Amino acid sequence: MIRIVSTGMVSLVFLGSVCHAAGPVVSHEFVYQKAAFDQCHASTIVETTEGTLVSAWFGGTREGQKDVSIWVSRRGRDGWTDPVKVADGVQSKTRRFPCWNPVLFQPRTGPLILFFKVGPSPSQWWGEWMVSDDSGQTWKNRRRLPKQGIGPVKNKPIQLANGEIWCGSSSEHDGWRVHLEVTRDAGRTWSTLGPFCDGKRIGAIQPSLLLYDKGRRWQMLCRNRDGQGDVWQTWSDDGGKTWSRFESTGLPNPNAGTDA
Questions:
Q1: 204 near 197, Cβ under 8 Å?
Q2: Which of 76, 122, 204, 259 has its CA 20 to 30 A from that of 101?
């Protein structure tokens, strides 16, 4: 497992099993020492098909400020490259929004994908994405997800054996509600399933997807709404089409982001 912390520090840790304690730290280092922004948040990291580590995050004056942009760094032989701004929220000469929550994802075939959000707030943002053919050195084909899509809201998608990419997503404009966004053709078209909670009795966002029993059983783990105090879960036995009633995992969570 690769763990990256939003302060710009990265740790590489090997896990023998999700049920066992973490093994020794292989590497522990800062991604950057100096940067052109004051704060950063929502970091993501991926290993590309050629073995390069690429990290991304949003950085700017402060979360939610209009200058907040998406930054990327790559780890080469001499360490991490200086952060490079690869996307901002400029809409016109007089209109600009902050960027949010980048998610790096490397499909089994095809280019590296960078998903991110743009908009004035989490209740009003939309999803965009772009790709890299050279392990994050350059980016192209920036586009907006169709039908007000958000894409993977914070955590990585999963790719099934048939090539489908399933993104755990959520919205905040009508309570905290989780849903799934799916592409079966490498991003050319998208479909949405859910939402799977009402945002009132159960409020949840930022899901992670886990597969068990050779993909026959799915688990969704979510950040909870204020006052619920722990990580929530739901299960699917039909390939993500329908989900069980949300319930607590018993794992404490003080309304913080989670990943699995």
A1: yes
A2: 76
Instruction: Return the higher-pLDDT residue of 20 and 56.
Output: 56
Q: Is residue 240 within 8 Å of 180, Cβ to Cβ?
A: yes
Looking at per-residue pLDDT, the higher value among 184 and 24 belongs to: 184
Which structure tokens are listed for 174? Answer: 């009508």
Provide the whole-model pTM.
0.90
pLDDT of amino acid 9: 53
Distance CA 94, CA 232 (A): 41
Closest-CA residue to 73 (of 37, 109, 125): 37
Instruction: Strand 126-132: give its sheet, edge to edge.
Output: 99-105, 112-118, 126-132, 140-144
Residue 120 one-letter amino acid: P
**Cα-based distances in Å from 23 to 178, 223, 237, 243:** 33, 26, 32, 34
93 vs 29: CA distance, rounded Å: 39
pLDDT digits (tens, 9 = 90+) for 115-133: 999 999 999 999 999 999 9
Write the pLDDT tens digit of every residue in 150-204: 999 999 999 999 999 999 999 999 999 999 999 999 999 999 999 999 998 889 9
Burial 187-221 (b: 16+ CB within 10 A, else e): beebeebbbbbebeebbbbbbbbebeeeeeebbbb
Contact 168, 157 (CB under 8 A): yes
